[in-house]
Design brief:
The complex is a heterodimer of chains A (198) and B (575).
Chain A (H helix, E strand, L loop, with lengths): L6 H15 L6 H13 L6 H10 L4 E2 L12 E6 L6 H9 L1 E2 L2 E8 L10 E4 L7 H8 L5 E4 L10 E6 L2 E6 L1 H6 L3 E2 L1 H5 L10
Parallel strand pairs in A: 2-4, 2-5, 5-6, 6-7
Antiparallel strand pairs in A: 1-9, 3-4, 7-8
Chain B lengths: L2 H10 L5 H50 L3 H10 L6 E7 L5 E6 L15 E3 L2 E10 L2 E11 L3 H89 L3 H28 L8 E4 H15 L4 E6 L6 E4 L1 H18 L4 E10 L10 E7 L7 H4 L19 H11 L3 E7 L3 E9 L23 E6 L3 H13 L2 E6 L2 H10 L5 E5 L8 H11 L5 E5 L2 H9 L3 E4 L4 H18 L1
Parallel strand pairs in B: 7-9, 13-14, 13-15, 15-16, 16-17
Antiparallel strand pairs in B: 1-2, 1-5, 3-4, 4-5, 6-8, 9-10, 10-12, 11-12
Helix pairs in contact in B: 2-3, 2-4, 4-5, 6-7, 7-9, 11-12
Classes of the chains: A alpha/beta (198), B alpha/beta (575).
Chain lengths: 198, 575
Amino acid sequence: MRGGASKPRRLLAAAALLLCLRGGVALAQEGAREAHDRRHAPHHGGYLVKASHLVKFPAFVAWPDSAFETSSSPFRLCIGGVDPFGPLIDRLAHNARVGDHEIMVTRLPVVTKGADCHVLFVSPSRGQTPREMIAAVAGRPVLTIADEGLDAPSAMIQFVTLESRVRFEVRGEAAQTEGLAVSSKLLSLSVTRGTGER
Amino acid sequence: MSGGAKARRRRWRPALTVWMAVTLAVAIVVAAFAMAVYNERLGQQEKLRQAEVQLRILAGSMAAPLAFDDRSAAREYVGAQSSNPDVEAVGAYDMQGALAAGYTRAGAPPPPRNALGPPRIEGPRLVLTAPVTEGDTVLGSVYLRTVLESPTRRMMRYAGFALLIVMAALLVAVLGAASAREAEAYRKLKAEIREREKAEDALRQSQKMEAMGQLTGGVAHDFNNLLMVASSGLDLLERTSDPARRERLRDGIRQAIDRGASLTQQLLAFSRRSPLKPEVIDIGQRLSGMLAILDRSLREDVTVRMQLPPDLWRVEVDASQMEVAVLNIAINARDAMPDGGTITIEARNEPSGRADGVGDMVRLSIRDTGVGVAPDMISRLFEPFFTTKAVGKGTGLGLSQVYGFARASGGEVGVDSVLGEGTTIWLRIPRSTKALLTPEPLAVRPPPADSDRQRVLLVEDDDSVAHLVEEMLRELGYEVKRVADGSSALDALRADPGFQLVFSDMVMPGDIGGLDLARDISRLRPDLPVVLTTGYSAAAAAASKEGRRVLVKPYRIEALAAELDAVLAGPAGRS
């Protein structure tokens, strides 16, 4: 699956490359581009915001040193299941860093045991249930983030939409179990399970 | 205190001049202003630090809300800044620099787009900006505008301070001016005191001159009367040959001269320069002899009692001065007893207890039964011119004479008095171990033959005195050569070794006085006797101290004869 990239994928990669070349362009242009992406992205349901959140979550989470081979080894952002972001996530990841580590986006239609990830975004998949995906990385310091509406109670973070705004629920104890430290700043923005309120 | 020390004290007197006070006041104001500026700067720095801390806390808390675009959380955190009343406006900006949440209390709202920069002061406001980061990720920025301190509040704060400082400066200035004025007044007062002292000195001098004028006037008057008697007596003596009349005239002249002599004695006593003629006396015998005089001087209602033990020690005093002293005390006692009473004159020995008899005294006390003396008067009793008697009744010199006599005799005097019971004045006179002089009757010697005439060198500067003394000496049978001063006398002695005696005045012009001459002669001719004569007490006292014989002027021819005989007999007896 990883080797056989489809045609639209290649097109997306080319677009990402093009955007990478323009990486030095001022942030002021970002807004306009995001508006453009919002109109042309394949999925609209708040995925622009979710993609943006995805690259920002690592800043509020601390991984154990053992999670990285070297100080310059990349930070792997895995998207399990169907990719809802398209090239948008690549562009955002390209502009962001986690500490000294560059963010590398890896798409995993099937999450196998031992998948090398730091963040795993769990998206709906035909082959695997969210629980299976999460179970595949269990026991390792992988920040699991589940899309909204999925049955993923063991995901450390799960998106929810409240009053047509994208919010998230943080399950700190789940992260702690895997050796991840979630910042209280992030916890303070978490909506409360059940009520949907913070 | 010396003049130098006085000047130093004056120089070191601290005096705050007006100029110094004003300088001090200005210095206080300047120092206060400098302190205020320094405080202001410190206050601003403190304010800046506080604002930076607040901004940093805000930036930290804004990280998550900005990262995840949580507007309500952002608004909540921004709104929390309103609890600080100094905060005017707060803004939180997302990654794109757009305002995500804002709060405005007063003035302009936070700018729509944030521009990061160092803290800046805009009038009374402080504007700070800071990026919002999480780890190395920049998530946005914050903006904080806070009031440094409102000008009114600052003015109010400094107004109180300024008021205090101005009051202090004013106080210093006023005190300084007052001190300067006081120093000026002090200086003026010193000048005034100096002037007054000068005036008082001048007044005292003029009073002294006036007193001397009165005294000399009075003395001149008395002497003129005496001279009148002597002069007219001599005139009449020349015109008559009746022996009885000539005798009367001679007596009159003699009396006038004696009165003159006693007058000078009184004057000298007044000046306490009376030459003492100390002689060894039996005090009991002398006092007993005074009974008649005392009875005559006192009233009938005053009884005099004498308590004189027969074994009283001898004393060496001027007998006539002692009699005057006792008389003066008795007259005071009489005046203290207007209704009569008893005066008790008592003498007794007061042994010192030492084997050699040094310190033995004879105590003479005169006690009355009069009104007594007030305690505060006692210390002044012996002051010259001090008197408790009515004007014209007393001179104030009586007890002064007593004091002078006691001191001159090497003794002391004192008063014990009880108001209403009486007064005792006592004298303590040192005992004398010398033998009593039995006065020899003046034998009128026949003039010796020319061959055994003795030669006397007379040294006298006053021609008229010299002439008379020369005559007296010739009358006594001496051969006389007169010179006018000490150096001439020494020349004469060197030229002619045939003199048997030198009779010299003491106070003379030239370098050599009588006493110096006597000393020189003692070296030149130790065997040659010298008799000195003077009317001046200080000179007489100096000579007596050296053990030299002094004949006090004025003297009578009998006294001169006795003195010279005694001197000439002395060495002859020894040799």
